[in-house]
Amino acid sequence: MRTSDRYAIAITVACILASFTLSPLTQDPSYLGPSWLLIIAINLLGTLVRRTRLGSGGALAAQLLALLLWLFVLAGQLTASVPGVDDAGFLDQLSYLLNEAGQHVRNDAAPMPPDNGVRLVFIGSLGLITILADVLVVSLRKPVLGLAPTATVFLVPAIGLSSDTGWWPFLCIAVGYLAILIAGGLNTRARWTRGLSRDSGADSMAGEAGVVVWRAAAYVAAPALALALIVTAAVPTLALGSWGFGDTPGTGGPLRLSDPTLDLKRNLTLPRDKVVLTYTTNKPTGTYLRMASLPAFSAAGWQNAPTSIDQGNHLPQAPGLTEPTGKERKTKITIKDFDSEYLPLPFAPVSFDANGSWGYDPQSLVVISSDRSGNRDDATQGLQYTVTSRDVNPDAEGLNDSLAGNPEDSDLTTALPSDLPKNIINLALRITRDEPTPAGKAAAIQSYLRDPDNFTYSTKPRPGSGYQALENFLFKDKHGYCEQFAASMAVMARAVGIPSRVAVGFLPGTKHGDVWTVTARESHAWPELYFSGYGWVRYEPTPSGVTGSAPSWSVPQSQTPDDPSTSNPEPQQPAITVRPTVQPRHDQAQDHTAGTVTDQGTNWGAVAGVGGGLVLLLALLATPGTIRSARRRTRLGGSFADPADRVEAGWAEVRDTFVDLGRRWPAGSPRSIAESAGRHADQPTRQALAELAVLVERGRYARDFGDVAGAAGVAELVKTIRGGMLADRSSRSRMAMRIFPNSVFRRAR
Amino acid sequence: MSLRFDDTSVGVAPAADAARAGAEPQSYELSDVVAVMSRVRSAIEQVIEGKRESIDLALTVLLAEGHLLVEDVPGVGKTMLAKALGRSIDCTVRRVQFTPDLLPSDITGVSVFNAESREFEFKPGGIFANIVVGDEINRASPKTQSALLESMEEGQVSVDGTTYQLDTPFMVVATQNPIEMEGTYPLPEAQRDRFMARIEMGYPTPASELDMLDAHGSSNPLDELQPVTDAQTIRGLIAATSQTYVAPAVKQYLVSVVNATRHSRDLRLGASPRATLQLLRAARAKATLSGRDYVSPDDIGALAVPVLAHRVLPSTEAQLARHATEDIITTAVRTVAVPDKRQA
């Protein structure tokens, strides 16, 4: 096998593995097959052409030609059903497809829907990358640079994708690179054995380089792989975004979010007439302006959660919202004297055009300043911007039929801490006892909180935090402001099985002419509950004196809050459970089906991840020993055409055993090595070493080996020598030697 | 005239010698070489106890068609070794005692006018023998020394326009006393280069010395030494020795070893290309003596000091630091990596 053949195989493996890393970008994996064919064809072509006199230059030309031909065929096929383009020239087809791909990339969030243009771009790029890798590794003989092309493929989803790309694309790239490095190592070894007639100095340099590559593979790649696997398995929230990779340009750590509830409290105590912002909108009604969303609930109260931030002004569709929504609302917002890192937006925002660097959280659709250079806290100061949004206005009936959904971040938005006081849960269950549907339960909780007989609005609640504050509010004090109302409703919603979170922002304000004015006193917090088909729906548990009437959908029509029992058209609906296991009628792809495990149960995903990581770690740990024993088997039991090769293999085995024992393999001729190696050994070992050394000497320096009978006994000799050398070792050191054989990592010189 | 012909065998006329040299040598196997040589070795060992290494080196030089320089203090058996070697082989041995007044013609021979036949008749000198023992070679004048050394190199003698071929095997065993340097003419480097190897006899071990008392006390064992082989056989063995295989990697190693002496910082003068050739021949002979049909790097390593040490000149720094030339050579050899891969 030639040097270039080994590299070609390694590149094929690396590029095929790299092709997987593009798959998070599209919903359509059909690009894989053609690109694999292309990768294999390019490498095969390169290998064949290199065998002719055309050499590397010819190979490159042939590969580029093959890529072009492939694209030609592909473009014809992909545009076959497009009228007007199907019979156009290749260039027209190509530009059509590239245009199409460009539009998709601009307009669609990953994963992109199936598209021919995207497919062509993916296949073409993979082909190009294969050629690039071939040039770097085979033509230029720089296997170390083989990482660059495949890493480019890896970086595309890593940068372009909002969510965690997971550990496996990294694994794919790493394994591919390892394959190239190993091919390099094998080639260096192969060069050694045929290089005896050449200048020995140059050869030893090459050998040195080979050792470096092997060591790099063993020392760097293996721990890196293990670490990546374990860390990603053990830390479920780890995302490239949260490491500051994919979210913003510039440098530095992840965005640190301030606690929006602190702003809320501060704002509420500001002078009543302090104008925070004004806005005009194309709809007759005003709109809640949402800034932040707190999905995590714990003993410390409602909090932000680690999140990944995507760049851009176009937000993805609101999570879970599949029901037809109202018309677009366009809102022009002018911020007066108000500092925040959160951009106030109507829900659900579609796009915005604010100056500065802004990113969004695809789960909560919260827009946050991602400007690392300046002070983010005053990013909104004096800002004027236009927002396009779609109001989420569920019809009460539809909502009543809807089930509590299962959002993507359900691990955050459904979790109830195990130490949550039981009386809060009992209260929630008591209030909603008579309500069969999730929406009904939500409405019941809301009306309980809004009931002026139960609670009084006050911006000066009794001090306290977390559960204590919540209990104070619900059971003792019954005084609070929007934060307490919103927090209580969100907690109780979770207690009855509805995913919830607390949004922070502003009430719609008051209208003067066309302009709506929002003052500091209109800072507000409200719960958002997740319903299948509608996504996150706003509720308003804060009493009407401050907020006006409750949202229309949150009050069942034929039902007054005082008379909850008469309303439901299907009061005996028995099958509906808190966490639905049956797909509701709004069956859409984005609506996850049932029940992942909720609150305090075992997180089987994490267990599987950690378990898998451990298994992989064990496999990694077992690798050196396995390699070593495989080598020993081949050397002692393999079939050799030349008896001298068998002798050399036996000698190599003795040498590796020596290195495994942590001893230095002496330099010199076989006899001198045998003499110094056997210095402390017993007589039979010394004898066997001497016999083997003579055989090795004969194999290396004699005209022909001749003594076939002697070679047959090599395995026996080696066993005697190994036995002698291991005899005085403790069982612990033998075990260490078996698990972590030095010779796999270090070449004896 | 101080020339003494110390013939230990019947003098042979040059014409007869030439006839013998022309005879087709019988072809010998490796095992024959080992067998014959071990007989010779045992024969010599009857005379010299405990000098196995020196004896082996002498035999190596014999098989490699080289010449041997034995350098040591008087009385350690230099001449005894040379004599025993000659005696155990049925061949002509002559001993030339070198003195300051020794003339070149004493070595090469002289043409004398024969009144009866009215012709010049060539009287061969001391060099016409299979084994020539040159005692205290550094005591002769440079002129005489060079007469000997030229014959050694070329294997022939030219007197009065006539060239006389020397018989084979032809081996000069010259001795030199390094202690008494007064009134001597030390061999220049160029002359030393013609000796294949230099050995130092060294004192015998106490045990060997004790054995020697018993063996030499009553009689001279040299007198009892019987030839165990003849010149004809030795010629065949030499031919067999030249068949010994030297792998390319080993040749490369040999060249690297010689090169190492040229690049050693401790040496002012490294070994010559002639040294490379002679090291190769010596290595072949040593391998053959060990019963191998191939040369191993060990042979080269073992011969590096005896074959190279007398040809090189240590640098002033090395001399001041009292580094022995032998150690410098050993160190230089160690820097060369032994070929440890099989050839394709």
What would your notes on this structure say?
Chain B: This is MoxR-like ATPase. Chain B: Keywords: ATP-binding, Nucleotide-binding. The complex is a heterodimer of chains A (749) and B (344). With 749 residues, chain A is an alpha+beta fold. Chain A folds into 3 domains: 3-236, no CATH class; 257-602, no CATH class; 607-745, no CATH class. Chain A is 48% helix and 10% strand. Chain A is built from 24 helices and 17 strands. A 6-stranded antiparallel β-sheet of chain A has the order 7-10-6-1-15-14, with no helix packed on it. A 4-stranded antiparallel β-sheet of chain A has the order 2-13-16-17. A 3-stranded antiparallel β-sheet of chain A has the order 5-8-9, with no helix packed on it. Chain A is elongated, with a radius of gyration of 35 Å. The two termini of chain A are 25 Å apart. Chain B has 344 residues and is α/β, with parallel strands linked by helices. Chain B folds into 2 domains: 14-238, Rossmann fold (3-Layer(aba) Sandwich); 244-334, Helicase, Ruva Protein, domain 3 (Orthogonal Bundle), CATH 1.10.8. Chain B contains 15 helices and 13 strands. Chain B has helices at residues 14-22, 30-47, 52-63, 78-88, 104-108, 142-154, 189-192, 206-218, 221-224, 231-241, 248-263, 273-289, 297-308, 316-320, 325-334; strands at 68-71, 89-90, 93-97, 109-114, 119-124, 131-135, 156-159, 162-165, 171-176, 197-199, 229-230, 267-269, 313-314. In chain B, the strands form 5 sheets. Chain B has a 5-stranded parallel β-sheet. Chain B has a two-stranded parallel ribbon with strand order 2-11. The relative contact order of chain B is 0.16. Chain A binds chain B through residues 192-194, 196-197, 200, 204, 644-645, 648, 667-672, 697-703, and chain B through 245, 247-250, 252, 256, 292-298, 301, 337-344.
